């Protein structure tokens, strides 16, 4: 049965050249593009250039990731079967084992190219094809469960992609000499902090804000005072006017995230504190100021309710917030100088605080996930790394993080 399927799979890749090295004029961009186009029109989304895999996002489901596909790509020579993300995954894994050398798969491309899905498929392949002892099974499950958690807090809808990674991620999996996964680690960088306080038209803030606003009441959200509110009620979620996305069921996605957090051994207090911080940031955007003079401002009249909510959510007294949001302190040459903030600087300071809190929370979240993945061992391990850079994208206003990626 497997042999028949393998033959059928080979025969199905009969459009153009599967390896662009074999093109009659491999230096011609036009011929290269035409080859990709021919294959794409027949739903053949993978093409190779030697050991490099090109993937074109089909924007619809394809039946090319089944258990049968996993089976036929195991222990095959690169190029023996049609190009596939499983072929690259198997090649990296077998090279690591056979040569005893660490490997890294690098995923890059424009926003919406399918990088996040590719990284998921690599993890799924490794989970299916590696040995499965109790420890290995636990590590594989947790690696897979880390995806929905990090996507909830680090992904967002952009103009080009409904689930765009807005942070860079390097994931490494450590294997023992038998090829069993025994530990894992995730490094994050360049989180797009400015998205917390500003979104372009047609874009959203990070998914977790909308998940919490649409979630059914639970022990972790009951005290957050958000029931009955919508994304349109908050400055930090309504700017893009894209709170509802056809391809995203925020309520269902939140259930998946809750399950993943529990599978990663987060305790109830940790989960509640995470949600509390997110809603605290959301409420922070509702704090208003008013001008007194050109260089002085104050918290606007009628803000007592929002100040009390922020005090509960962020653990800061109302009096301290009233003062610190509109005053600054400068230390220079052992002298402390107190001053006032203009209306514009007070708003800027509020938004800067929101970004800083979210960034620190995200760093804590990644470190906490790593605690669930890490296993201490004295034996030598081999590493298979997975580097997923978030996508090249040009917007009307480009963030510092997007500029660095571009």
Structural class: alpha+beta
Can you count the beta strands? 12
Q: Report the major sheet.
A: 4 strands, mixed
Regions with little confidence, pLDDT below 50 for 5+ residues:
none
Q: What distance lies between the first and last C-alpha atoms, to the nearest angstrom?
A: 47 Å
What strand line-up does the widest sheet have?
3-12-6-7
- What oligomeric arrangement do these chains adopt? single chain
**What share of the residues lie within helices?**
40-55%
**Count of DSSP-assigned helices:** 14
Strand content: 15-25%
H/E topology pattern? HHEEHHEHHEEEEHHHHEEHHEEHEH
User: Radius of gyration from the CA trace?
Assistant: 25 Å
> Whole-number average pLDDT?
91
What descriptive keywords fit this protein?
406 residues, alpha+beta, 4-stranded mixed β-sheet, two-stranded antiparallel sheet, 14 helices, 12 strands
Blueprint (SSEs and pairs):
Blueprint: H1 2-12, H2 29-41, E1 46-49, E2 52-55, H3 67-73, H4 85-99, E3 103-107, H5 115-129, H6 134-154, E4 155-156, E5 164-165, E6 168-175, E7 181-189, H7 207-214, H8 235-238, H9 250-263, H10 268-284, E8 289-293, E9 296-299, H11 304-314, H12 318-324, E10 327-332, E11 335-340, H13 343-373, E12 382-388, H14 400-405
Parallel strand pairs: 3-12
Antiparallel strand pairs: 1-2, 4-5, 6-7, 6-12, 8-9, 10-11
Helix pairs in contact: 1-3, 4-5, 5-6, 6-7, 6-9, 6-13, 7-9, 10-11, 10-13
């Amino acid at each position: 049965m497997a042999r028949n399927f393998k033959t059928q799979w080979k025969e199905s890749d009969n459009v153009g050249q599967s390896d662009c090295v074999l093109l009659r004029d491999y230096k011609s961009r036009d011929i290269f593009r035409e080859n990709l186009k021919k294959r794409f029109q027949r739903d053949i989304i993978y093409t190779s250039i030697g050991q490099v895999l090109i993937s074109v996002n089909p924007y619809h489901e394809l039946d090319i990731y089944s258990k049968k596909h996993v089976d036929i790509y195991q222990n095959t020579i690169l190029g023996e079967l049609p190009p596939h993300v499983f072929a690259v995954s198997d090649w990296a894994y077998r090279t690591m084992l056979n040569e005893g050398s660490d490997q890294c798969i690098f995923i890059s491309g424009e926003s919406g190219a399918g990088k996040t899905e590719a990284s998921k498929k690599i993890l799924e392949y490794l989970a299916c094809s590696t040995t499965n002892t109790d420890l290995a099974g636990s590590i594989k499950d947790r690696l897979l469960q880390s995806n929905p958690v990090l996507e909830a807090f680090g992904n967002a809808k952009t103009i080009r992609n409904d689930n765009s990674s807005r942070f860079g991620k390097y994931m490494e999996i450590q294997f023992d000499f038998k090829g069993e996964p025994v530990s894992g680690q995730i490094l994050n960088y360049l989180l797009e902090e400015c998205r917390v306080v500003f979104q372009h038209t047609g874009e959203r803030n990070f998914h977790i804000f909308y998940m919490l606003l649409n979630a059914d009441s639970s022990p972790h959200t009951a005290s957050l005072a958000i029931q009955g509110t919508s994304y349109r009620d908050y400055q930090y979620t309504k700017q893009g006017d894209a709170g509802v996305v056809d391809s995203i069921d925020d309520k269902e996605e939140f259930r998946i995230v809750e399950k993943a957090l529990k599978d990663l051994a987060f305790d109830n207090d940790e989960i509640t504190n995470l949600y509390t911080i997110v809603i605290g940031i959301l409420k922070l955007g509702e704090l208003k100021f008013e001008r007194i003079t050109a260089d002085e401002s104050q918290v606007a009249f009628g803000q007592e309710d929002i100040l009390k909510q922020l005090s509960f959510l962020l653990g800061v007294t109302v009096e301290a917030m009233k003062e610190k949001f509109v005053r600054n302190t400068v230390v220079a040459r052992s002298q402390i100088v107190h001053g006032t903030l203009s209306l514009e600087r007070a708003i800027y300071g509020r938004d800067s605080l929101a970004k800083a809190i979210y960034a620190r929370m995200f760093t804590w979240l990644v470190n906490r996930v790593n605690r669930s993945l890490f296993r201490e061992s004295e034996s030598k391990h081999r590493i298979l790394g997975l580097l997923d850079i978030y996508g090249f994208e040009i917007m009307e206003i480009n963030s510092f993080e997007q500029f660095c990626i571009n």
